[in-house]
Every structure is written in C-alpha cells, then in structure tokens.
Amino acid sequence: MVRRWRLALLTVLCGALIAAVKIGDDSPGAAALLMLIFLGLAFVVSPQLFPRSETAAEAQSDGRPVVYWRPGCPFCIRLRARLGPEAGRLHWVDIWDDPEGAAAVRAITGGDETVPTVVLGGQGYVNPDPAWVREQVAPVS
C-alpha cells in the first residue's frame, strides 16, 4: 500500500520543505502557492487520478479493454489524461496491487513490467498512443 503512495508522499514532503523555507524568508504567499502546486503534482502522481483499480481476474470478465498500469508512471498518467472521460470505459489494473496483473504484463512484454500495457481483443499493446486507444474505445455512432 505504501509503495503505491510513495511518489505522492515524497512530492508533498518536498513541497512542505520548500514552503517552510519560503515562510522562513517571510514569503508566506509564495509558500502557499508552492504548496498548492506540489499538492496538485502529488494528486497527479497518486493512484487517485485513475479509476478504481481492479484485479486482472475481474478485468477480464466482460471483454472491455484492460489497461495495466502503476502509480507514478508518467506514460500511464499521459494515457489516463488523454483518454479523459473515456477512461471509465476501460478496466484499470494496478500491477503493484495485483500480482496476477503483473504476471499478465510480463507475459505480454517478454518478462518486463512495462506499463501502460493495453489489452484490446486479446492482443496486448505496450505503451500505445493515447489517441489510438481513444479511437478503439470510442462509442460507435
């Protein structure tokens, strides 16, 4: 559990230290602004940015695309941000929280835990272009 939040906690700690220095320099406004920026960054790298994580077994239940990810991964954050509201139409499996999901990624990537790995129609794609993923999950009009 702590492993998933490590980067977010480190970001908040760095922000607090920098804000403390700014307060010591009689710059409380700058300290508050910097703390807000660091809190925003902590949210971006936290697991809270992503939809509820599922296990690999739950994710394979209905044929929807599956995204294997891990907290703090910049490529996962990019994919999540670029998918926007469409992200809720995919299953999200945190490989740090689900050993079966990590094993699935290793099977697709040849032994590595490279994320994001997206499984569409039984085929795995490692770090695919977010625009392409969005096209694949877009509703048919």
What does it look like?
The chain is of the alpha+beta class. It folds into two domains: 47 residues; 87 residues, Glutaredoxin, CATH 3.40.30.10. Helix 1 runs antiparallel to helix 2 and helix 4 crosses helix 6. It is elongated. The mean pLDDT is 88.
Summarize, please.
Helices cover 52% and strands 11% of the residues. The protein has 141 residues and is α+β, with helices and mostly antiparallel strands. The protein has a four-stranded mixed β-sheet with strand order 2-1-3-4, covered by helices on one side.
Write the layout of secondary structure elements.
Layout: H1 2-24, H2 28-45, H3 56-59, E1 66-69, H4 74-83, E2 91-94, H5 99-109, E3 117-120, E4 123-126, H6 130-137
Parallel strand pairs: 1-2
Antiparallel strand pairs: 1-3, 3-4
Low-confidence stretches: none
N→C terminal distance: 41 Å
Please tally the helical runs, counting DSSP H or I stretches of 4 or more residues. 6
Report on the biggest sheet.
4 strands, mixed
Q: Which term fits the overall shape?
A: elongated
Give the total of domains. 2
Rounded to an integer in angstroms, the radius of gyration calculated over CA atoms is 18 Å
Helix amount: 40-55%
CATH architecture of the largest domain: 3-Layer(aba) Sandwich
**CATH-defined fold name of the largest domain:** Glutaredoxin
Strand order of the largest sheet: 2-1-3-4
Secondary-structure element order, N to C: HHHEHEHEEH
How confident overall, as mean pLDDT?
88
Q: What structural category characterises the helix and strand content?
A: alpha+beta
Strand content is 5-15%
- SS elements, strand count: 4
